[in-house]
User: Which sequence fits this backbone?
């Protein structure tokens, strides 16, 4: 076994792969490798800077620590969805490929039988988690992206070019090792599912919006009493007395 080395860990998994017949599975695997290779090349990561492993319905890539993680995150948010869309629009709906994608990092060792390491296990747990599965089921998009807390804190929250931190939501994933924090891009799945959204919320969800407030600025016309100048604030928060009426 080699000494553990630090790598960026990228995983792709095909939704409902096991429900397809052998011909469809072979076709989807070819599509998956096309998307993975194009994604990595678009992010400036050539074959010399990565190792890939096949898991049947998924692909795992160990990426050299010198490769740009901000560029990879941006590519996963922009180019990868476009690649998927272009692939899927040319095939039948029944053969459409939808992906769960996880980006993480950590130490990985390589032996004669493959890759080992708790950080790699953690990335796989995120990939297979209920929040990712449920969110992809709820969406019409072709993919869903989850990043580990380390990737979020080290890269995403700083808002590199092309990456909006407010578009990520904090989730808690229940794993065999206990609860773990990750960050989901876009709106979370059903709040009643395991691993439902917890902790912070997007900055756009201000207290006013959570209480159904409507703020109207500037001059307003057509109201009772004529013209109104300035701000209006309507608070539709229901009180206990209102509920009893």
Assistant:
């Amino acid at each position: 076994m080699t000494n553990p080395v630090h790598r960026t860990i990228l995983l792709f998994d095909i939704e409902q792969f096991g429900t397809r017949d052998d011909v469809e599975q072979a076709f989807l695997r070819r599509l998956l490798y096309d998307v993975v290779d194009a994604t990595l090349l678009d992010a400036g990561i050539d074959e010399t800077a990565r190792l890939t492993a096949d898991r049947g319905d998924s692909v795992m890539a160990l990426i050299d620590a010198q490769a740009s993680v901000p560029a990879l995150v941006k590519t996963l948010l922009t180019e990868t969805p476009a690649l998927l869309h272009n692939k899927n629009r040319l095939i039948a709906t029944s053969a459409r490929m939808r992906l769960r994608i996880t980006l993480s990092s950590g130490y990985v060792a390589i032996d004669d039988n493959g890759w080992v390491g708790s950080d790699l296990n953690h990335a796989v747990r995120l990939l297979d988690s209920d929040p990712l599965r449920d969110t992809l089921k709820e969406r019409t998009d072709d993919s869903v992206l989850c990043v580990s807390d380390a990737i979020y804190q080290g890269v995403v929250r700083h808002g590199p070019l092309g990456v909006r931190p407010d578009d990520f939501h904090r989730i808690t994933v229940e794993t065999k090792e206990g609860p773990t924090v990750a960050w989901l891009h876009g709106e979370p799945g059903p709040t009643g599912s395991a691993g439902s959204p917890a902790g912070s919320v997007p900055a756009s969800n201000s207290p006013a919006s959570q209480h159904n407030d409507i703020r109207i600025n500037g001059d307003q016309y057509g109201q009772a009493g004529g013209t109104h100048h300035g701000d209006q604030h309507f608070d539709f928060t229901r009180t206990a007395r209102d509920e009893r009426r």
About this structure: The CA atoms of residues 128 and 158 lie 27 Å apart. The chain has a mean pLDDT of 81. The first strand starts at residue 5 and ends at 14. The two ends are 71 Å apart (CA to CA).
